[in-house]
Amino acid sequence: MHAWPASEVPALPGQGRDLRIHDTATGGPVTLDPGPVARIYVCGITPYDATHIGHAATYNAFDLVQRVWLDTKRQVHYVQNVTDVDDPLLERADRDGVDWAALAEQETALFREDMTALRMLPPRHYIGAVEAIPGIVPLVERLRDHGAAYELEGDIYFSVESDPHFGQVSNLDAAAMRLLSAERGGDPERPGKKNPVDPMLWMAAREGEPSWDGGSLGRGRPGWHIECVAIALDHLGMGFDVQGGGSDLVFPHHEMGASHAQVLTGEFPMAKAYVHAGMVALHGEKMSKSKGNLVFVSALRRDGVDPAAIRLALLAHHYRADWEWTDQVLRDAEARLGRWRAAVSRPDGPPAEALVEEIREALADDLDAPAALAAVDRWVGLQEASGGTDTGAPGVVSRAVDALLGVAL
To answer: Which of 83, 107, 171, 250 lies at a 20 to 30 A Cα distance from 4?
Structure first.
């Protein structure tokens, strides 16, 4: 599966700061110090109803992570998956009377278009669950053969008790885990499971549903969590720098994925930091596919909204915050974009070197994009109030905003 084209990232003078970011597992900040190549895995979409603003907010956060690392003169090895076979996708295809594979292809193509328009840097490896199946099957067989998985009516489940570190990503108690498992694709009430939250690794073939040859597992399809584990281990290995996604992935997805990987490799932890973006609401409720209260990037673009304004609307909120999309949020972003573009089109302005450092400092401090935007606002305000004499300053500001915030002026 191919990703989308990369926009050019301007080179800036000097060098960025190492990233200090909130780690869900420890509940506090960690300063990441990758080697020459920083490694990040971000969970991708299940391709139906793409791309809504909640998606965009999540991928914007991890785009900033990449930009901070690139500014430190590191390379970035970024991997993202596409869950192109799963129950929600099959249910939507059945509801709409369309082929599930065609729906997945259509929505993935739309996602690529939106990511390109928003200037999100693409992953080096963009892998679909279906194409990952040949690498998933041996992992499930290994877990089963080592006693970390068991069969239940043809399905294969992972035993969470096989990982001594289980629970150390989410730090939830058993009752909370059981509740979230039921809400987020698990089956805690199924009789015969060793632990109610044990997740499925391999689902035996169901009539009328797609299935693949699973070798000794029989025909079926992979569970959700093992998909990401197989892709991450294949392309990044253990101990990569950041595992990222929305906060709704903390449990069960990232908890289970970590346990799968840790049992498979005998190493801990799977990732040095677990980083999660907040949820976006609309009309007082979390934006979600099940509720249908979605604002789509593609619809905004069709209505003539500049993608740079959409990106500024996202950047105006701290990535970890839960916030609400409103018409006013977009109007504010459009006004800000207009002021910034007017400023960099003028022939001169106040010196901008200090501004570049302010943006760097803000982003290195747990991706504080609102503080970075405020710093640019101050420079623009000074220029509007008293002009300036530095003829190179507007160009410096334009390049910094592009390189570090992903906004083309």
So the answer is: 250
Nearest to 1 by CA among 44, 38, 41, 40: 44
Question: Any binding-site annotation on 263?
Answer: no
H/E stretch holding 42: strand 37-42
The response to whether 45 counts as a known ligand-binding position is yes
46 annotated to bind ligand: yes
pLDDT tens, 234-264? Answer: 999 999 999 999 999 999 999 999 999 999 9
This prediction's pTM: 0.96
What's the CA gap between 328 and 350, in Å, rounded?
A: 30
Q: Which pLDDT does position 323 carry in this prediction?
A: 97
Residue 224 in marked binding region: yes
- 250 annotated binding-site participant: no
Q: Is 253 annotated as a binding residue?
A: yes
Q: According to the annotation, is 247 in a ligand binding site?
A: yes
- Is 43 marked within a binding site? yes
Tell me: the pLDDT tens digits for 1-21?
999 999 999 999 999 999 999
| Per-residue model confidence as pLDDT tens digits over 359-408 | 999 999 999 999 999 999 999 999 999 989 999 999 999 999 999 999 99
**Per-residue pLDDT averaged across 346-362, rounded?**
97
Tokens, residue 290: 């099940």
Give residue-wise pLDDT tens across range 282-311. Answer: 988 877 766 778 999 999 999 999 999 999
Set out the domains of the chain in order of their start, with CATH numbers: 20-297 (3.40.50.620), 300-405 (1.20.120.640)
Query: Helices 129-145 and 224-235 sit at what angle, rounded to 10 degrees?
Result: 100
Tokens 């900040």 belong to which residue?
29
Strands (E), 167-290: 200-204, 220-222, 240-246, 271-277, 280-282, 285-286
**Do the beta carbons of residue 129 and residue 85 sit within 8 Å?**
yes
Tell me whether residue 79 is annotated as binding: no
- Helix 393-405 vs helix 53-71: angle between axes, to the nearest 10 degrees? 120
The annotation status of 96 as a binding-site residue, yes or no, is no
Annotated binding-site residue? 195: no
Is residue 43 a contact partner of residue 245, using CB atoms and an 8 Å limit? yes
Can you tell me the distance from the alpha carbon of 198 to that of 23, in angstroms, rounded to the nearest whole number? 24
Task: Find out whether 58 is annotated in a ligand binding site.
Answer: yes
On whether 97 is known to bind a ligand per the annotation, the reply is no
The proportion of the chain whose per-residue pLDDT surpasses 90, expressed as a percent, equals 96
